[in-house]
Amino acid sequence: MTKLLAVLGATGQQGSAVVEYVINDPGLSKEYKVRAVTRTTDSAKAKSLREKNVDVVQGDVKHRESLEKVFSGVHTLFAMTTPAGGERAVEDELNVIKTIADVAVESGIEYIIFSTLPSVTDISGGKYRGVTPFDAKAKGEQYIRGLSIKSSFYCPGSFMENFESQTFLAPQRDPNQADTWTLSRNMSPHTQMPLIDAVGDGGKFVGAILADPAKFEGKKICAATKFYSWSEIASILSKHTGKKVVYKQESNEDFAKSLPPPAAPIFIDYFSYIEDHGYFGPGGEEAVAWAVANARDKLSTFEEFLTAHPFKLS
């Protein structure tokens, strides 16, 4: 019997990756019928999903009544949340996660796959408290683990797409060398970053859970293709853009000057945490190796991602 899979944020990067993978996989498309949940059902992405015979419905994760309607008849839920801002960022996002999880339980949903992240505050022993989106999702994961519902957790690495979407973190033209672009961070060039093609490969990890929920119950998939050092990343960007890209390690103070003021505290703590503890914390390399071994289908390297999605510097 076909099971109904609800996907929150279905037109965003993570949600669309899950929807597209399921509807295009010969086995999963027979096992699951997809309900794509989005706040705006008249967007171009929503229209594209409807053209693929996906059930697209309007839903707002901040409103319990909306979720009660959306979750009716659902067997499995893929849930993700967007970061909140302000002084109550962790509490506000956590409250949204709790509402989603509580309504899922009340609605009789049998299985939740939650998009989580590591707890920066806990792993760093309280040293880095500014990475609120990570801490909120980690607290949400712990809340879900305490509920009377089966669950597993998708924990993605740093998105390859961010080099294009977060322009303030992309290589910048060196004002003193016209033919050189500088990729700057407050980290050593040897620091390792786990990269994932979030849109192209996210569904390959979540699809593994959907194909064998019992195997992954209670487990966390630390999803990435592999770890790349910053010097490797700069070299790959050079090769694919045809420009000279060099990596530069900066002080916290100098790096902060290149960031939008509201985002600076988050990114300073974020990269400092990774420098000290690694993106996933202790055991990250082993966790990624396990995730790669369990992913469905071949994963994209950063080089392959840039070939498929050319990144331009001008």
UniProtKB/TrEMBL annotation:
CDD domains the record matches: NmrA_like_SDR_a
Keyword Membrane applies: no
Stored Pfam families: NmrA
Gene3D superfamilies: NAD(P)-binding Rossmann-like Domain, UDP-galactose 4-epimerase, domain 1
Any one annotated GO CC term: nucleus
Annotated ranges, domain NmrA-like: 1-306
InterPro entries, alphabetized: NAD(P)-bd_dom_sf (IPR036291), NmrA-like (IPR008030), NmrA-like_oxidored (IPR051164)
Protein origin, superkingdom: Eukaryota
Alphabetized UniProt keyword annotations: NADP
Family (UniProt): Belongs to the NmrA-type oxidoreductase family.
PANTHER family listed in its UniProt record: NITROGEN METABOLITE REPRESSION PROTEIN NMRA FAMILY MEMBER (PTHR42748), NMRA-LIKE DOMAIN-CONTAINING PROTEIN (PTHR42748:SF11)
Name of this chain's protein: NmrA-like domain-containing protein
Organism: Exophiala bonariae
